[in-house]
Specification:
- There is one protein chain.
- This protein has about 500 residues and is α/β, with parallel strands linked by helices.
- The strands form 7 sheets. Strands 1, 2, 3, 4, 5, 6, 17, 18 and 21 form a 9-stranded mixed β-sheet that branches. Strands 7-16-8-9-12 form a 5-stranded parallel β-sheet. A 3-stranded antiparallel β-sheet has the order 13-14-15, with no helix packed on it.
- The chain starts with 12 loop residues before the first strand and ends with a helix.
- About 30% of the residues lie in helices and about 20% in strands.
- It has 14 helices and 25 strands.
- The longest helix is centred in the middle third of the chain and has 25 residues.
- The chain is globular and about 70 Å long.
- It folds into 2 domains: about 290 residues, FAD/NAD(P)-binding domain, CATH 3.50.50.60; about 190 residues, FAD/NAD(P)-binding domain.
């Protein structure tokens, strides 16, 4: 038996910048920091024992992106594979960035952050973390926190507490914690859920199960299509450099995405019919009408791309089926539905979403006072009122998440350079005089976008205002032009902690 002795490091390690998370956001952010501010010292703290974040956490069959890699991939790193990629390909891509930038030396794996405390006396964050292999507590100080840990709990997914779950004689699993040794061959499987995860798992296991059923309360929009990019392939045949191909295809896809988003709001009925036509081509009008026709307008929730319509092919072949109904309770042999039907199952997969994690669920304090992020107001979905020297990379729902990694990387590096030039050690965003009495609302307007994981815990997220500066607009096509032009000396930015040799003091 190994006896673990809990130890506490007495002298914190200091870094100019501390990046939280070595997933797609953290790796991309570290690239921008190293390229733009090579003199800054930094460390990346990662809870897991490997880089990758989402793409390392999830091990369920068939795991793949639901955004194309020409836009989900980094601006600075050409993507050369298929538009929709599996997790192993994405990890390879991230690994190349880590190797090319020498980032591995900066990553501390197996470090779970347990507290972050800001002191205005030192103008530093003190971050305490538990090393998961030894249970030792270690401490770091940093001038700036760059939060890249994502938005969901990596240790546990969301599974509703249905009546009778303890009565079920089979296995209940969540895709986020898929067992390595799960044998589903010849088994009857029910997948609860209608999102991208369900649409990925079902075609990946359908050929080996006795049958797999997708049980959904309501339908979701999907876009079936070929997993190729004809323009990229043509440019490769013409021996165009990959850097150019990446930029050209990226711009084309972003233009198409902007148009699709516009039309989803301005021409929702036409877009709905176009989306349903793609599904109908695979499963026929009856199944499309009964099981794949959502009751909301397009883009109020994410729309997943289904490569080659694989889930619809399995439905057409009879290896998978879809039932739209609600759960009454679990029973020993499976699930009893409110319609009275009983779905028999050996394995039930709860593809029912995430548990929201707000800034990694880390306890934060500022000068000894606990921070409730639900009481703060967001500055453009990046910073928070009265929380100094901290930015959170929270990506896009209607465009690839990573697009915001790049433009926020530009913004944060520009902000850090600006602080250097002013000789300031502290920057805080605060509401301006003209913002007095501003109407405050939820982080995301539920009438505009309403995924379950946000709706369940929206009260934990920062508030938004009725002015653009105080909202996370989710509009990449506007932000890519606005963020580079933000006046860093605007009234919303409060700089403090000037050094005696700073230009600001010299001006006085």
């Amino acid at each position: 038996m190994r006896i673990v002795t809990t130890q506490t490091q007495t002298t914190p390690e200091h870094f100019d910048v501390l990046i939280v998370g070595a997933g797609i956001s953290g790796v991309g952010s570290a690239h921008h920091l190293k390229q733009n501010l090579p003199h800054k010292s930094f460390v990346i703290l990662e809870m897991q024992d490997h880089f990758g974040g989402t793409w390392w956490t999830h091990k369920y069959p068939g795991i793949r992106s639901d955004s194309d890699l020409y836009t989900f991939g980094y601006r600075f790193k050409p993507w050369t594979g298929t538009p929709i990629a599996t997790a192993d390909k994405i990890l390879d891509y991230m690994g190349e960035v880590i190797a090319e930038d020498g980032l591995d030396a900066h990553i501390r794996y197996g470090h779970k952050i347990i507290a972050a405390d800001w002191s205005s006396k030192t103008n530093l964050w003190t971050v305490r973390a538990r090393k998961l292999d030894t249970d030792e507590t270690v401490a770091f100080t940093a001038g700036f926190l760059w939060m890249c840990q994502g938005y969901y709990n990596h240790e546990e997914g969301y599974t509703p507490d249905w009546p009778g779950m303890a009565d079920f004689k089979g296995l209940v699993i969540h895709p986020q914690t898929w067992p390595k040794d799960l044998d589903y061959r010849g088994k009857k499987v029910v997948v609860i859920g209608s999102g991208a995860t369900a649409a990925t798992v079902i075609p990946a296991i359908a050929d080996e199960t006795a049958h797999v059923t997708m049980l959904q309360r309501s339908p979701t929009y999907f876009v079936p299509g070929r997993n190729v990019d004809d323009m990229a392939d043509t440019l490769r045949e013409l021996e165009v450099e990959e850097t150019w191909i990446h930029e050209i295809v990226r711009r084309q896809r972003l233009k198409m995405g902007a148009e699709f988003t516009r039309r989803s709001k301005e021409e929702p009925d036409a877009v709905k019919q176009e989306l349903l036509a793609g599904v109908t081509a695979f499963v026929g009008p009856d199944i499309a009408r009964d099981h794949f026709t959502p009751h909301y307008r397009p883009w109020r929730q994410r729309i997943a791309f289904v490569p080659d319509g694989d889930i619809f092919q399995k439905v057409r072949e009879g290896k998978a089926s879809v039932i739209t109904d609600e759960i009454d309770r679990f029973v020993p042999e499976g699930i009893r539905l409110k319609s009275g039907e009983t779905l028999e199952a050996d394995i039930i997969v709860t593809a029912t979403g995430f548990r929201l994690s707000v800034l990694g669920d880390i306890p934060f304090s500022v000068d000894g006072q606990s921070v409730d992020l639900g009481d703060t107001v967001t500055y453009r979905g990046m910073m928070f009122t009265n929380v100094p020297n901290l930015a959170w990379v929270f990506g896009y729902f209607r465009a690839s998440w990573t697009l915001r990694v790049d433009i926020m990387g530009d913004f944060i590096c520009r902000l850090l350079k600006h602080m250097e030039a002013k000789g300031a050690a502290k920057v805080t965003v605060k509401l301006r005089a003209e913002d007095e009495g501003m109407s405050l609302g939820p982080w995301i307007d539920p009438e505009d976008f309403n995924p379950g994981y946000l709706m369940r815990e929206m009260h934990r997220m920062p508030k938004s205002g009725d002015k653009t500066e105080w909202r996370h607009t989710q509009d990449y096509w506007a932000e890519r032009n606005v963020l580079p032009t933000i006046d860093l000396d605007g009234a919303e930015f409060i700089y403090e902690g000037f050094s005696r040799a700073s230009p600001a003091l010299a001006a006085e």
